[in-house]
Design a protein that fits this description.
63 strands, Immunoglobulin-like, 13-stranded mixed beta sheet, 3 helices, 16-stranded parallel beta sheet
């Protein structure tokens, strides 16, 4: 995020039919402060993990947390703090934080993660607050300095905790004339921007997401959490809340998105609200989600709980039952400590181990090869991976069900083609019920040093789930410049049926996101295009001004994106006050099936701006000054400008013609009711035959091929790739030969979602007529919603 902003206001079985045609001194488990209780032998989590239990006083806990909260923004130290089940701190003074005693009270700093070790957030109760405060630039009168505020409050997190909020200023802040850390009774402040998630948090009171006097903040993420009282987002420019419960919600500037959230405000995006336009988008149910894996105690045994993926969900889910996920014993994990090499980590993976990567910076001369389905790679305390030889940090094989969570990847100083690669090129293996999932995976290109990577995350595996991603080409820190920290793209999606929930991608030098896969879906996107483009000529996509931040491939037929914010700040310290523009923040194919909802363009400051919001629609965010915002409620095309309706008349008896037609009828081909067959539903049928007649004198070769679209019903859809066939010659003649059989994509490949030959004849074939047919084989995942589905099989003849 940038550090200079313009002013903002504070504020199952289915019926299926086919259609024809470092602070080591704080690692105190077993320290002189008290003997550990009778837990099983503690695993060796290394010097950067601290585990609190009932031998610690509230003051000792606060001191340990506060000592770790002072890391610099680009420090190489990492810290994880855990609370064993129990109650910490006193609730006696909860109604007056200024005089409360015995509370846990600390700020939360860079690279500091705090989590409970209970099976439920309610197993660890904190009377007090672990809070995040803005940067102070004006000591005597903070109202005079709304920035930087929280614009750079990154890389910190809390999870699996219950708070009875009792917060007051601490340390140097407590001695200020107007302390930032002072809060209302029963209120917790978490004034952050990117890469600072709250997960499985239970707040018995209020939560504020901005500084005490409304200092700027630039977005965050809240998931699987409860807040009984008000959430005050105020000056937050954007925020994503998923599968949670809130009492009330108040505030926000441009792009506030809710998915599966009880108590969330209704959608009012782009609607008149007060003196402005609404900024809220409410998606009633999250189409698919999987909560992040986490370490917990089952009695005295450490385990990692891996939640199952679920479809069409809302509200919280804190269960650790077998029905809700899998508990993996800590013995099944290789516990990596700082200094571990790529060879050591890959040897553990090859031996069938999962990885638990403890806090630290890991320098890798080869990628982590995750080639076993279901592997879990879990980072603690913002563990960071750094490729050193132009390699990737992680490469996932053509397998399903991999879970990667809690990791930061820093591009190395040698250019990498890609940093995280999910599936090899052309990957086809997937499991919609157990998608490969990336949760809280954060990328940096530059900042600690001049990192270089062409693409940060590349997704080739179908059905992948991205759950809270921040890919960031640094705009400040070390090694920052147009020719220094180079990076073209933050996220490139090539796989089909990929879902992104909370996608933050910023400052890359070309398209921030490229989405080539079919049936992709994004709920919440936030992007700043680069500040440092030196000229318009250096920042131009062919003849198009600039690069769209969110780019859907021209060939894509189905895509849905909801809650998108694209911001410009062409900083004149880089471009000598030249006006630099972006044609549109979002660029998608203009065809039915591609839809964008709730998109906003903002000129934050600087020169130039964004001329359109989506394609050629939406007003320009440009002009003098900053804070210019333009809103577009919906973009959807009713027609495809690249499609043509074809008609041809062949006169009867015309000599030397090549013609084909569906023989007899073009009615619905009914595949009947699908039958459950283990891990899929199966249905079969036969297409209406296609008659081909070729009486041309030159005996030119011909072919007839077909391709199927998605199967749709009022309640859902699934991809055409699940349809396969076995072509055959129903009636021989004219040298016709049948095309090759194509397997259902459930077995392998892409099925009939790709054009496949029904039949053909070579050059020099005899003149005559043939009838072509095919037996259909439809195999559908058992996760498909019940209903009657239809699809269109488009037949094409070439001769």
């Amino acid at each position: 995020m940038h550090r200079n902003r313009a002013d903002h206001p504070p504020t199952r079985p289915g019926r299926l039919i086919g259609a024809g045609a470092t602070i080591a001194a704080l690692a105190l488990a077993g320290s002189a402060l008290g003997a550990a209780p009778a837990y099983a032998a503690e695993p060796d989590f290394g010097p950067n993990v601290t585990i609190f239990d009932d031998t610690w006083t509230a003051d000792q806990i606060s001191a340990a947390l506060m000592a770790a909260s002072t890391e610099e923004e680009f420090s190489l130290d990492r810290h994880q703090f855990f609370f064993k089940p129990g109650t910490y701190g006193s609730a006696a003074g909860q109604n007056n934080p200024a005089t409360a005693t015995g509370i846990v009270n600390s700020e939360l700093g860079y690279y500091q993660a705090v989590a409970g070790l209970g099976a439920s957030p309610e197993d660890v109760r904190i009377n007090g607050a672990i809070h995040v405060e803005p940067v102070r630039a004006c000591e005597a009168n903070p109202w005079d300095c709304q920035q930087p505020g929280s614009l750079t409050r990154f890389w910190r997190s809390m999870s699996n905790l219950t708070f009875n909020p009792i917060q007051r200023a601490i340390g140097a802040d407590a001695n200020r004339p107007f302390p930032s850390g002072t809060a209302d009774a029963h209120q917790l402040r978490f004034a952050v921007s990117q890469a600072a998630p709250l997960r499985r948090i239970n707040i018995e009171g209020k939560l504020t997401l901005m500084g005490r006097v409304g200092e700027y903040a630039s977005g965050g993420y809240l998931a699987n959490s409860k807040v009984s009282g008000e959430v005050l987002s105020g000056s937050q420019q954007q925020w994503f809340t998923r599968n949670s419960s809130v009492g009330t919600w108040n505030g926000g500037v441009w792009n506030m998105v809710f998915s599966g959230v009880s108590g969330a405000p209704a959608t009012d995006f782009a609607q008149p609200v007060g003196n402005g336009l609404g900024n809220k988008t409410n998606v009633a149910q999250t189409p698919i989600n999987r909560e992040a894996p986490f370490l917990y105690l089952d009695g005295s045994d450490y385990k990692v709980f891996v939640p199952k993926a679920k479809q069409s969900t809302s509200g919280v889910d804190w269960s650790t039952s077998a029905a809700s996920g899998q508990s993996i014993p800590i013995g099944d994990f290789f516990i990596a400590h700082e200094g571990a090499t790529a060879a050591q980590l890959n040897a553990a993976l090859a031996a069938g181990k999962h990885l638990l990567i403890t806090p630290g910076v890991y320098y890798l001369d080869a990628p982590l090869d995750v080639d076993r389905a279901g592997t879990v790679v879990l980072g603690l305390g913002y563990a960071s991976l750094v490729p050193t030889a132009g390699n990737a940090a992680i490469e996932v094989g053509d397998v399903a069900g991999v879970k990667i969570a809690g990791l930061t990847v820093d591009a190395g100083e040698v250019l990498s083609d890609v940093l995280v690669k999910v599936g090899p090129d052309g990957a086809s293996t997937s499991d919609p019920a157990d998608p490969t999932t990336l949760s809280d995976v954060f990328i940096r290109v530059g900042g600690p040093w001049a990192g270089k990577a062409t693409t940060s995350i590349e997704v080739n595996s179908p059905d992948t789930l991205l759950d809270h991603i921040w890919a960031w080409r640094a705009d400040h820190g070390e090694g920052v410049g147009w020719t220094s920290n180079v990076g073209d793209h933050g996220v490139v999606v090539n796989g089909d049926d990929v879902t992104a929930l909370g996608l933050f991608v910023e400052h890359y030098q070309k398209n921030q996101v490229i989405w080539n896969g079919e049936r992709g879906r994004t709920i919440f996107f936030q992007s700043e295009i680069p500040y440092d483009a030196p000229t318009q000529g250096a920042y131009k996509d062919g003849n198009r001004l600039g690069y769209a931040a969110y780019r859907v491939g021209d060939h894509v037929r189905h895509h849905l994106a909801q809650g998108l914010g694209v911001y410009s700040f062409f900083d004149n310290q880089y471009n000598q006050s030249q006006d630099i523009f972006v044609e549109s923040g979002v660029q998608v194919p203009q065809r039915p099936g591609v839809r964008v909802e709730s998109a906003v363009s903002v000129k934050l400051n600087g020169t130039g701006g964004i001329k359109h919001i989506v394609n050629d629609q939406g007003d320009a965010a440009q002009g003098a000054g900053g804070g210019v915002s333009k809103f577009l409620a919906v973009y959807e095309s009713a027609t495809d400008p690249n499609a043509q309706n074809l008609q041809v008349t062949v006169p009867e008896g015309a000599p030397g013609e090549f013609v084909w037609s569906i023989d007899g009828t073009n009615d619905i081909v009914d595949l009947g009711t699908a039958v459950e067959n283990g891990d899929h539903f199966a249905a079969a049928g036969t297409i209406n035959p296609v008659r081909v007649t070729d009486t041309r004198r030159g005996a030119t070769p011909w072919s007839v091929s077909a391709q199927v679209g998605d199967f749709d019903s009022p309640g859902g859809s699934f991809g055409g790739k699940y349809l396969g066939w076995a072509p055959k010659i129903v009636e021989a003649g004219g040298g016709a030969v049948a095309g090759a059989a194509v397997q259902s994509g459930f077995v392998s490949g892409n099925g009939l979602a790709h054009s496949s030959a029904l039949g053909s004849a070579p050059a020099g074939h005899e003149r005559g007529s043939a009838k072509l047919g095919a037996d259909l084989d439809l195999r559908i995942p058992v996760s498909a919603t019940d209903g009657t589905y239809r699809a269109t099989l488009t037949i094409t003849g070439l001769g």
